[in-house]
Amino acid sequence: MIQQDSLETIRRSIQTGNTDVLSRNCDSHVEIITDKNSGTYSKNQAKFVLKEFFIDYPASSFKYLHQGSSPKGAKYTVGLYVSSKATFRVSIKFRNDGQILYIDSIQFTKE
Fold it and tell me: What is the pTM (predicted TM-score) of this model?
């Protein structure tokens, strides 16, 4: 249940562009790939990289299309991020501490 709460918090923060909440749900270092940036960032840096993306592409909607786990138990989601300027497939991989999911990587790929 706690993990579902984490997923919902992350979904809402992406849809609303709330980088404060989103960065709190990132691991200590997170890989981010957007159309302008690609790299591994600290939580604080991630906040600014994601903020730039959300300013460039404000969300009309964001929803999860698929959630799953790898055979080794790594959690991931695939979602659809729609902006008036473009649509992106969003792939998120998580680190699971047993209770809470932390974003290990997030990739926005233009469709």
Answer: 0.93
